[in-house]
Design goal:
The chain is mainly α. Helices cover 60% and strands 0% of the residues. The longest helix has 27 residues. It is globular.
């Protein structure tokens, strides 16, 4: 009887130890965004969080971004990626009126386009809908850039006219280069040495989040 009790106690101790090991293992595992929060450079930290949100398909990560315009972009990207216009409603409060949004003029209403409006517009439009917009309008350019970012499709950046929107095209390539941590994408910026150098420098402070 005594041996049986000792055996049972031994088994309980073993189970307790195994349980403790598993608990400590999972507790000690860093959250996926910890390495982003550890970055000293604010821009690098927030770019890392934005890219991580896309990679993890997790809109809650956007809430950890403190800079308003970057957080707004994060919500726009996630709404487009997940095809969820409701995410756009998270762009709320006085910050909307303080921001000019991604485009200064709405060709239809002649009014300032807020980030929330643009978010809903692009999400409902869809990837193919970008091509229905006039080639000379900023809204088409930004639509293509958004879907290029969330899909990782570099060829969408090629659709942006270098002649008319060279800076935006460079931003498109740089954005994907950051997401994929692929510095060779910067080499596509052949028309502007300064923009290409900026892309290289962004990769230097924004290492892979994967």
């Amino acid at each position: 009887m005594k041996k049986r009790i000792i055996g049972i106690l031994s088994m309980l101790i073993v189970f307790a130890l195994v349980g403790m090991v598993f608990y400590l293992f999972f507790q000690s595992r860093p959250e996926p965004y910890d390495h982003c929060l550890d970055k000293k450079n604010t821009k690098a930290k927030e770019v890392c969080l934005l890219n991580l949100a896309i990679d993890q398909r997790d809109v809650t990560i956007c809430t950890r971004i403190q800079t308003t315009p970057v957080q707004f972009r994060c919500y726009v990207y996630m709404a487009a990626l997940l095809e969820r216009p409701d995410i756009c409603t998270r762009i709320t409060g006085s910050a909307i009126s303080e921001s000019k949004g991604p485009e200064q003029g709405d060709e239809q209403a002649g009014e300032t386009v807020s980030w929330q409006f643009f978010c809903e517009y692009v999400t409902q439009l869809g990837f193919q809908g970008c091509y229905s917009l006039p080639r000379d309008r900023e809204r088409r350019v930004r639509c293509l850039a958004i879907y290029a970012k969330v899909t990782g499709n570099v060829s969408l950046c090629d659709e942006i006219s270098i002649k008319d929107w060279g800076g935006e095209a460079a931003d498109c390539y740089t954005s994907i280069a950051e997401t994929q941590s692929n510095i060779s994408i910067c080499d596509r910026i052949t028309w502007d040495q300064e923009e290409r150098s900026l892309c290289y420098s962004q990769l230097a402070i924004s290492p892979s989040v994967k």
